[in-house]
Amino acid sequence: MDNILDRSHLESLLQHEEQLFHKNHPKSYELYQRARKSLHGGVPMLWMIRWAGSFPVFVKEAKGVHFTDVDGSEYIDLCLGDTGAMTGHSPAATVKAINEQIQKGITLMLPYEDVIWVGEELQRRFGLPYWQFALTATDANRFALRMARMVTERPKILVFNYCYHGSVDETLIVLDEEGTPMSRLNNMGPQVDPQYTTKVIEFNDIAALETALSARDVAAVLAEPVMTNIGIIHPEPGYHDALREMTRKHGTYLIIDETHTICTGPGGYTASFSLQPDFLTIGKPIAGGVPAAVYGFTEEVSQRFAEKLNVDDADVGGIGGTLAGNALSIAAMKATLQHVLTQDFYDKAIQLQERFTEGVESVIKEFDLPWIAKRLGNRSEYWFRPKPPKNGGEAFAAIDHELDRYMHLFALNRGILMTPFHNMALISAETTQEDVDYHTKVFREAVKSLFI
Ligand SMILES: Cc1ncc(COP(=O)(O)O)c(C=O)c1O
């Protein structure tokens, strides 16, 4: 069997899948045409334009890891709101808490007692003593960066090439092919060119880290402990020790963003691998899909921040959000942490994810493809390259948009939703063995169609 991809064959396969998609989604198409008259691009949020079909599927309802669209088709959801619904859609305990809280007030700008339970639980899970709330992980990152700059009185931050931490202005920077920092392609209307605010280096490059931090002008390194947004890129052995040692040596704070790596376990990668960040940020699944995010920090950060904070201006100083810490988000977070994202959840989901990854690997082996699959907890990703990339630059170079689109559309047409932008699948404790095996079957059919 020949495993060289014929591009003209791929193009005709893609056309066929596109026609099938149109044929099977007449109501979604109709709604999309109507939506275009009131919503920019026919969608409520720009990202929704980027699905594999030429228009989005409109959802009728979702529960657990399944959803139905307006045309009556059923899907297994392996995207799970790009981690926002990692718990499964509308988990029973979260829904119960929301229903109860909604009768008792939604937003007051005053605390309810439940918020203390959440703070104590976050301490227990992530090992940091003090916590603040936001509505999105983007904001949690923005606020942590502001605190770090304020406390250290340093102007810069450092991120890794092809990271993603939300729409945080300072992070939209990459290295070009010569290794020179540049504003990320299509960075929309930046207020300031991120080259002025940010240093960017490759993940897993200890020498570059030492050079970048030694100027002692970097307030904080903002890092996912395992990169997840340009595919899964694991740290090399010893990398996290070096990162921690060097940030300490040069007086730079370490902010670990666990928004996606919470797929590792109940305390994220930080707890599983005993990391010791100065700040930790997380959003997305923490309240079962209700908007909520948190950021935690050390005793030392808390004290230094308190010394510099002018409480009279706390409401207009750039860290805020009128609805942050609202009662509904807190109730949802408490229920999700207490009853849903438990050790039991991870035990089940990770075991199934192992089965999912083994399924993908068995097909890769059967067709002798130069592809690989990588896994982190209940998250897995397949790559069209033979070796795992070491950093964002290598990962970016390996992207094959056409093939990605085909694999996604093929799956979608057969009732499976993958995460857009890359070939990522999340497994929830609600996912079943049958769901996983069905994916393996469809993945195999897609591969077979490419190489016959
Ligand atoms: C690691 C990481 N941090 C932060 C964010 C931002 O999350 P949100 O868009 O909910 O603000 C994302 C979004 O994908 C992310 O992947």
Shape: globular
Give, in spatial order, the strands making up the sheet with the most strands.
4-12-11-10-9-5-8
What do the pLDDT scores average to?
97
Percent range for β-strand residues: 15-25%
Q: SSE string, helix = H, strand = E?
A: HHEEEHHEHEEEEHEHEHEEHHHEEHHEEH
Q: Report how far apart the termini are.
A: 8 Å
What portion of residues is helical?
25-40%
- Unique ligands: pyridoxal-5'-phosphate
* Unreliable parts: none
Largest sheet: 7 strands, mixed
The number of helical runs is 14
Structural class: alpha/beta
The total of beta strands comes to 16
What does this structure look like?
The longest helix is centred in the last third of the chain and has 24 residues. A 7-stranded mixed β-sheet has the order 4-12-11-10-9-5-8, with helices on both faces. A 4-stranded mixed β-sheet has the order 1-2-3-15. Helix 4 crosses helix 10 and helix 11 runs parallel beside helix 14. It starts with 6 loop residues before the first helix and ends with a helix. The protein has 14 helices and 16 strands. 40% of the residues lie in helices and 15% in strands. By secondary structure, it is of the alpha/beta class. It is globular. Pyridoxal-5'-phosphate binds next to helix 5.
